Each structure stands twice: as C-alpha cells, then as structure tokens.
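User: What would this chain look like folded?
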Amino acid sequence: MRASLVRRSALAASVASLVLLASACGGSSDDSDTKSTAVDTSKSASAPASAEPEQSAVKALTAAELEKVSLVEGDVADLKVEKAGAGDIVKTSDVTADKAECLPFAQALFVAPQGKPVATSARSAKEELSADENAADLGGDLTMVGLASYEGKGAADVVAAVRTAATACASGFTATVQGETQKVSAIKEDQVTGGEESAAWNLVVDQEGAKVPFDLALIRQGGTVGTFSTCNLASFMGKEIKLEQPTAVVDAQVKKLS
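Assistant: Here's the prediction, encoded as structure tokens.
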C-alpha cells in the first residue's frame, strides 16, 4: 500500500480508494442505496426464538431519529468524532466475498448496510494525537461507527447473520471492496458489552505482506444495530499495533441509544 495514500487517509479519514481499510475501516450508505442494494439476511439467520415475539413489534427509528442518537463531537473523551462524508461511504454493492457465507461479516467489517434498514448513519471516531506523534506516522486508532434501524426482527437477524458468518469463516476468506481484494484471516471471538445483544471479534487483514489487526463489534438496542470497525493507521506503515475493542465509543453510543 502506498505510504502517501495512507498518510492522506490518516489526515482525512477518507475511504475514497482501497485505502478503505487503512483510512476508515469501512463506512455506511445513504437511505436510497440501502433500499435498492442491501442484501436481505432475514432468511440466512434469525434471532433466538425467545426474542421473536417482542422483536416482531419493534419499530425502526426514522432517519431524523437516528441522527439524533448518532455520536457527535464531545460524546467520547479524547476522540474526534465526525459525520462520515461522501468519500467515506461504502455501499452494500461495493462489498463481495469469495464465499457467500462470509458476506455478512465482510459487510460488517466495512460498515456496509445489511438486511433492509429503514435508515442509516455513519460516524468516524479518531484518536487525537499531537503534532509530533502525527509527524512520526503513529496514526492512532480509528473507529468507523455505523447505525442502522430496522422494523421487526430485522436488527436481530443482522446480528445473527454476522455471528453465523464469523463462525463459518473463522479460517479466513477473501473480500473485494470497490474492486480491490482484501484477505481476511484469523477471525477470533472477542468480548464487548452493551445493548440488548452484543458480539465482537478480532481479526487480521493481509495487506501486501503486512498483517494488519482489526477489531469488529456489533451491538443491538431495540431495532437498531451499531457496527464498530476499528484499525490503527500506523499498522499499515508496518508498525506492530495491539488493538482493543473501542469500549469508550461503544459505551457512548449505547448510552445515546438507551
């Protein structure tokens, strides 16, 4: 991966090229795209039977309501929170996988909408570094946060589909994002708490010989799914980075959804 692109991504948190992974770890789509291109996961996996009666009555948040509960600057201490711009958008149709059963996980990793969301929103939360740290290409952790609201069991179905994909594809798979190939390997279950449901994984993405760590977390609160995809831009420079789930970001988002 060209260092100039990574540096540009670190400054702009942009997913305009294959630096999708390096720059923003993913994105989200606008409502018009999700309605036309989202993959329906409702038949591929389902929520636990005990949750079905209450889930069937869930009403989705509207686009305006979802914006009100999306993170804003000041919600997470020491992190710069920004609304994702047009260059940060990863559409559902932008993501494919060499194994059909792995597609839900690939879409989640890039924070692309799944199922049939009524509305979506996207934010980036980046660790703020000093000028000296940025000059040294330390990068800092970057978490892309996607919210998607669903009617009925849609949200539970999405979480179940990603769980199933993580198990089925633990040995790895190849994803294609906007025409660029990404090799995903070493998917391992992790822990995260919050919401009515939560799930998390750590994984490795092979980038031109470099082993780049990622953390992925999902939470469900009612009919809304929050997706958190985290990387550290310095790892694309060959630095060894130890990632942890973005607990502060998840907690702040769950608080706004509750």
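The two ends are 40 Å apart (CA to CA). If you want, I can go into more detail on any region.
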